[in-house]
Known about the structure:
The chain is of the alpha/beta class. The protein has one domain: Rossmann fold. It has eleven helices and five strands; from the N terminus they run H-E-H-H-H-E-H-H-E-H-H-H-E-H-E-H. The protein has a five-stranded parallel sheet. The longest helix is centred in the C-terminal third of the chain and has 15 residues. The protein is globular, with a radius of gyration of 16 Å. The protein starts with a helix and ends with a helix. The relative contact order is 0.17.
Amino acid sequence: MILEEELLQRHRGKKILVDSNLLLLLLIGSYDPSLIARFKRVDQYTVDDFELLSTFVLSFSTVVTTPHVLTEVSNLANSLGSPIKEHWFRRFREALQLFDEQQVVSRELSSKDEFLAFGLTDAALCTLCGEVLLITEDGVLYRYLRSKNLPVINFSDIRDLRAVQKHIYG
Length: 170
């Protein structure tokens, strides 16, 4: 946990890059926290997870994303039922104005080793991760980036840290 705490100290107040599933959790929870338990794309999370992630992300100045991540979020949210879907997409449209969307050309990404290992979206995350802290729950991607000494945090570690703090401090 010491490495995670060091990363947080070094990057807090700066930019954070949020992986697709976690960004979807943030957006669904911001729209309606009760949807977290009911929407199959995020039902592995809890409202507590949403609140923890939301608080965590608020300690950074800017949420960085890519068109690839936003496309995944949009595609995953597309299975929301009516009338929620239209209302949610209206809120998503508003949220898009708040993100720092950074384009990494797919042709360039496809020439990287990360493209062969992870695909397009995660290759873009790998490319940007050197500039900003990435939060993900993808264990394979996390371990790869850690092996390259890139700034990445696994959301599971944030959960574990919270659990330890609750146990110690009540």
